[in-house]
Every structure is written in structure tokens, then in C-alpha cells.
What we know:
- The protein is of the alpha/beta class.
- It is built from 10 helices and 7 strands.
- The protein has one domain: Phosphopantoate/pantothenate synthetase (Rossmann fold, 3-Layer(aba) Sandwich).
- The protein has helices at about 10-25, 30-45, 50-65, 75-95, 105-120, 160-170, 185-190, 200-210, 215-225, 230-245, and strands at about 70-75, 95-100, 130-135, 145, 155-160, 175-180, 190-195.
- The chain is globular and about 55 Å long.
Amino acid sequence: MKVSEDHPRYRSLVVRERMSELVREGVVAPTGLIAHGRGEAFDYLLGERTSPSALEAERAAAAYLLEAKRPVITVNGNAAGLCAEGLLSLARAVPAKVEVNLFHRTPERVEKVVSFLESVGGKDILGRQQESVLEGIASDRALCAAEGIASADVVLIPLEDGDRAGALVKAGKIVLAIDLNPLSRTSVVSNVTAVDELTRAVPNIERFVRELKDAPEERRRVIESYDNQHTLREARETMRSVLQGMGKT
Length: 249
Ligand code: PTJ
């Protein structure tokens, strides 16, 4: 479908078309489109803007990434399709390793997502070999790379499923989530949840990484004062006020 640039939802329609194309190429899983639609609905409820509490979470995520000894950013099909360059740029800024970690895992799809990241400049992307196992997860969704997620102390998980987020927390890692749904298990179990759209959250986190890079005391202060339950309450409150505002003329 050709979308006119005058269309009020031009950007989201272009993104949808691109995601559908990536399903045909095998990068995005077919159910990735359902997850994407759910994300769009939650973003509506946020007024399609980054809220002040999401910005606080993004600053805390940047602080944790910089304080980490072995930070890893995980990438699935949706994250690659929506924000490959942004995630790679963030990984270079920290610096952090990047590991492809799929919910609907087949060796062919892992290869497609790794190659997709490489085609936009990704180097040393982990995921082709995943010899370690994350405790508490059934099936090959538990697989991860020994030099990546398995040995990471801080993991940034854009759009992750609840089981794996919970297993990462149980494994003693600091888990930083980006998830538009403040009620999802991922959002609730993570140490930091940016309730924000991926393509807005990632450049914000990178900006905070640059700001906090030479400010170790400030980033420890940010971590100490951060409260994820407060962030989630604020996100729900933002949605409530957007909905209430919609009723008024
Ligand atoms: O590529 P794979 O095989 O690893 O599969 C990826 C998906 C996303 C299909 C898989 O991880 C999955 O099923 O995830 P869930 O459990 O549907 O969770 C996705 C979460 O991301 C939901 O809470 C959505 O609201 C949220 N979400 C969707 N799009 C965005 C988003 N959050 C931030 N930005 C988005 N653009």
C-alpha cells in the first residue's frame, strides 16, 4: 500500500508497512505484528509522548548501563525492525555487547536478525552461538551466549516476554526494560522500566549515557534515588489523565 505523506498517521503507517515487509523477510516473527499493535494501543494512551517518569527511567537505565561491568543489550525481531541503528549506536556509546535473543527461536531466524544488524553496521553481534542456559525457562528460549547474557551484570531488554525478564532477575542481573505496557510482567519484575516507545526511549537513553559518562557520583545518586514502582504508578497515572482529557472538548 502507498501511504500519502499528508496522512495524519503517516509515520505509524510507514512503520507498519516496514514491519510487515520484515515479516516476509523472516526478521520479525508473525506474532511480532500483534505485539507491535499492542504497543501502538498503549502508546495512544500515553499521548504518543515520552512522559516525565519515562524520562526518569531512561536516565536511570543510562546510569545502570554505565555502572555495569558487563552490560548487554538484547535484540529480538521487533527491536531490530524498529530501531536497529539506534540500539547499535547506544551499544557503542556505553559500550555494551549486543546479543540477538529470540522468543520464536530458529537457527534461520537468529541468522536473519544477526545479519540484519550487521547490514546496518553491527559488529561482533552475539547470538549465533548460544551455549549457556538461563535457569527457569523451558525450551530453547533459555539459550544464551556465555560471553553475553549469561555473564552480564546488567541487561537492557527492549520488548521482552515476562518469563525471560523474570528469569534474568532471578539470575541476579539488573534488568532494564523498555515496554509500553506498564502492567506487563516484564514491566513489573524489572529493576527499571521505561514505559515508552522504543524509538523514543533508545535515543533518550543514549543522550543520558553521554551526559552521565563523566559523572560517576551523579549516576550513583540517580540509581540510589530511583524507584520503579513509582515509575509504573506514574505511567498508569499518565494514561488515566490522557483518557480523562479525551472526554473533554
Ligand atoms: O522476535 P521474537 O521471536 O523474539 O519475538 C518478539 C516478540 C515481541 C513477538 C515477543 O518477544 C513477544 O511476544 O513479546 P510480548 O510478550 O508480546 O511483549 C511485547 C511487549 O512490548 C508488549 O508489552 C508491548 O506492549 C510492548 N511493545 C510493543 N511495541 C513496542 C513495545 N514497547 C515499546 N516500544 C514498542 N514499539
